[in-house]
Structure formats: C-alpha cells, structure tokens
Amino acid sequence: MPNPENTSNRGNKGKPTKTRRQPFKLKPNETIDYKQVDILLSFSTEHGKIKSRRSTNLTLKQQRQLSKSIKRARYLHLLPFVTSVEN
C-alpha cells in the first residue's frame, strides 16, 4: 500500500510556480482607461472579441479593468462591437 504522505493529487507539489509576464506595468494609481483606444484594440481579436486572460498575460484585476474599459468604449462608439472580415 502506498504511503499517503507521498501520494498527492497536485501535480506540481514542491515545484516553483511560474510568474506571469505582464505586457505592461501599471503604476499603483494608474488604471486601464476606455479612452486609450490603441491599447484596447491590441487586447481584442480581429472579430472584436476580448482576448482571454491566458493569452493576454494580465492579472485578474487588470483583466477586469480591461473588459470594463472595452465595454465602455464600445458603448461610446470608440470601438466597434463587431468587425466584419471581408473574404
């Protein structure tokens, strides 16, 4: 019978976790703003969808700010809701 101390369901027990590389550093009082259209466009796909947190490498707080800013910019017609891709 295996020793219960050595068996674990966690795959990376004892291994160091990877640190996320942030695409840009924010100062403590700085936020992602809806008026920064060029930055917001880099975080959306060619169809206008918001990229996932896994692909953008943002923290959870930054991803929430990003999605709120993109939605505000869409509402104010600074960003398109959907872009049409021509064949």
Molecular structure report:
- Residues 1-11 have a biased composition (Polar residues).
- One of its GO terms (molecular function) is structural constituent of ribosome.
- This is Ribosomal protein S18.
- One of its GO terms (cellular component) is ribonucleoprotein complex.
- Belongs to the bacterial ribosomal protein bS18 family.
- The chain has helices spanning 37-42, 53-56, 60-75.
- The N and C termini lie far apart (62 Å).
- The mean pLDDT is 81.
- Helix content is 30%, strand content 0%.
- With 87 residues, it is mostly helical.
- It has one domain: Ribosomal protein S18 (30s Ribosomal Protein S18), CATH 4.10.640.
- It is globular.
Overall number of domains: 1
Can you name the CATH architecture?
Answer: Irregular
Beta-strand fraction estimate: under 5%
Helix content: 25-40%
Distance between the termini: 62 Å
CATH top level label = Few Secondary Structures
Number of helices: 3
Which H/E pattern describes the elements?
Answer: HHH
DSSP summary, beta strand count = 0
Report the mean per-residue pLDDT as an integer. 81
Alpha-carbon Rg, integer: 19 Å
Name a few traits of the molecule.
single chain, 87 residues, mainly alpha, 30s Ribosomal Protein S18, globular
Protein topology:
Layout: H1 37-42, H2 53-56, H3 60-75
Question: What's a concise summary of this model?
Answer:
With 87 residues, the protein is mainly alpha-helical. The chain has three helices and no strands. It is 30% helix and 0% strand.
